[in-house]
Amino acid sequence: MEYFYAQDNLSLGQMAARWVAREILACPELVLGLPTGSTPIGMYQYLVRLAQEGLISFTQARTFNLDEYVGLNVDHPQSYAFFMREHFWSKVDLPKGNAHIPRGNVSNPAVECLRYDNAIQKAGGIGLQILGLGLNGHIGFNEPSHNMEIHTHVVDLTAETIQANTRFFPDSSAVPRQAITMGVGNIMQAQKILLLVSGERKRDILNKTFYGPVSTEVPSSILQLHADLTVLTDIKL
Ligand code: GLP
């Protein structure tokens, strides 16, 4: 594991964007695993800037988002598809057909999970997986549990996650109770992982992630076992 400290959230975004840019320059057809949430917003802003300045291009890249809420369609302002369109897809030269995200508003989410796993497999797996970190240690939407799911699956969100994500919705009752998420196996099979962690409130979970036991109760702790993990954080441990 490599660990890099950023002064603040702004420089974290710049560092992450430079990291991704370097990987894209080295491998233009890179398959990227992408996160949502407030932490990666700065990274997307800088990546957009680099792309608009012509320094990098996503024309040959493919992207797979980690997760999506069940029941929200792509035009719902709180859907992750909407987030991605706002912050990234509509602003860079990534071909539309190369941007993938689980479809939350489908009649059969289990079938959607299979379709998504097949699409990842067809693309040759994830080359660089970028991750945020949930307050309870979730990665994607892999919540603390007695077991870890390998593949893309439907998950019941924990009360803690519903509470944490209420800030994006009118109230907690509007937060979807389920999501589709890549599994821990999809994430761990990525060739490289870049974990972004920002803000004092994540200090405790960051500690548990890397200095605690590997446990299904802290899903992010499994990242200790990944062979090529880089952590960018503005928290001084
Ligand atoms: C959501 C997403 C995660 C993300 C996490 C942290 O629940 N499903 O992929 O990492 O929130 O978000 P934030 O960066 O806003 O703290």
Task: Provide structural commentary.
It is a single chain. With 237 residues, this protein is of the alpha/beta class. The protein has helices spanning 9-26, 41-52, 80-87, 109-122, 159-165, 184-188, 203-211, and strands spanning 2-5, 31-34, 62-65, 67-69, 99-100, 128-131, 153-156, 178-181, 192-197, 229-233. It has a single domain, classed as 3-Layer(aba) Sandwich (Rossmann fold), CATH 3.40.50. The protein contains 7 helices and 10 strands. The protein has a 7-stranded parallel sheet with strand order 1-10-9-6-2-3-5, with helices on one face. A 3-stranded antiparallel sheet has the order 4-8-7, with helices on one face. The model has no long low-confidence stretch (mean pLDDT 97). The site of 2-amino-2-deoxy-6-O-phosphono-alpha-D-glucopyranose (GLP) has 14 residues, from helix 5. 2-amino-2-deoxy-6-O-phosphono-alpha-D-glucopyranose (GLP) binds at residues 35-39, 66-67, 132-134, 140-141, 161, 165.
